[in-house]
């Protein structure tokens, strides 16, 4: 044995002293972190902290002016077949599409991670099998013939997840998949993603504003803010001292009833965005 790691051993995501900037704004500065194989990582931080930008950098859309980000040992680049991506904002699908056509549209449209020789009509049987596979994975085979505008938010979310799974990615980037879902549906989505990642052995980065639905499922949490990032187990990262240092404002972490409440005080405008404490949730 040479002892040299093969690309197959490389972690799903690795940041080596990476800097991310959007315009004048520094999203991350000199950040180093490694997402282990098969990990479910909750990505948290206040509005505008850079959660979406971080995912877009992993996709190769946001440039990395300093340092390096690699995905399974290779520098990031557009059209990486290893990544499945569910963006935060979705174009509204044509109401007459049924579930199957909705997924087929992603198969034939521009998406992340598909082999570039996939063209409409060229591989019909393979396409049909791939659509069946992802519908089955997300438990949405029964939605295949239903019009998309008759589906609930949670059902549509399943189809979006199915789209992200096209092409057998080894890394899933899910940008706020719980937005606009009630707590019950949110937990269903988290449980579904967890089942899929265990079944396929893939890593997941899952951004959210509330870490509670991810408790008991996520292996690690990645907090971003003020140009820095902290990745680690929940008990190590979600603490008053760590988050206060990360955000430069007093942050209190309260554990009660199996839930975690992160409360920022002080006058910092960003701190008020940094409220995972939402009464009634
Ligand atoms: N295309 C863009 N052009 C200019 N600024 C941008 C662009 N995309 C994002 N930004 C800015 O970069 C910062 C990070 O945005 P990003 O969407 O990554 O944050 P976020 O943590 O995902 O926020 P939220 O929780 O509100 O979705 C914000 O200040 C945002 O206004």
Automatic annotation (TrEMBL):
Belongs to the ABC transporter superfamily. It comes from Gluconacetobacter diazotrophicus. This is ATP-binding cassette domain-containing protein. GO terms for biological process: zinc ion transport. Keywords: ATP-binding, Ion transport, Nucleotide-binding, Transport, Zinc, Zinc transport. The keyword Transferase does not apply. SUPFAM superfamilies: P-loop containing nucleoside triphosphate hydrolases. GO terms for molecular function: ATP binding; ATP hydrolysis activity. It holds the Pfam family ABC_tran. PANTHER family: METAL TRANSPORT SYSTEM ATP-BINDING PROTEIN TM_0124-RELATED. The keyword Protein biosynthesis does not apply.
């Amino acid at each position: 044995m040479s002892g040299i790691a093969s690309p197959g051993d490389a972690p799903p995501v690795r940041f080596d002293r990476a800097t991310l900037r959007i315009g004048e704004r520094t999203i991350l500065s000199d950040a180093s972190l490694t997402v282990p194989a098969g990990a479910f990582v909750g990505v948290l931080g206040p509005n505008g902290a850079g959660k979406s930008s971080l995912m877009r950098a992993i996709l190769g859309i946001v440039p990395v002016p300093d340092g390096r980000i690699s995905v399974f040992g290779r520098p990031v680049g557009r059209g990486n077949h290893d990544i499945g991506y569910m963006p935060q904002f979705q174009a509204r699908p044509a109401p007459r599409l049924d579930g199957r056509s909705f997924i087929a549209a992603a198969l034939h449209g521009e998406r992340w991670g598909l082999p570039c020789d996939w063209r409409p009509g060229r591989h019909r049987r393979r396409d049909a099998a791939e659509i069946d596979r992802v519908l089955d994975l997300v438990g949405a085979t029964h939605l295949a013939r239903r019009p998309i505008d008759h589906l609930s938010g949670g059902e549509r979310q399943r189809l979006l997840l199915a789209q992200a799974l096209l092409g057998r990615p080894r890394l899933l980037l899910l940008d706020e998949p719980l937005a606009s879902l009630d707590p019950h549906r949110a937990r269903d989505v988290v449980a579904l993603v967890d089942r899929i990642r265990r079944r396929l052995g893939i890593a997941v980065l899952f951004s959210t504003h509330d870490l509670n639905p991810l408790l008991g499922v996520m292996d690690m949490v990645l907090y971003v803010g003020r140009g820095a990032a902290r990745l680690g187990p929940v008990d190590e990262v979600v603490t008053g001292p760590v988050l206060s240092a990360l955000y430069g404002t007093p942050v209190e972490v309260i554990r009660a009833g199996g839930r975690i409440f992160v409360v920022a005080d002080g006058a910092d405008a960003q701190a008020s965005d940094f409220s995972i404490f939402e009464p009634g949730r």
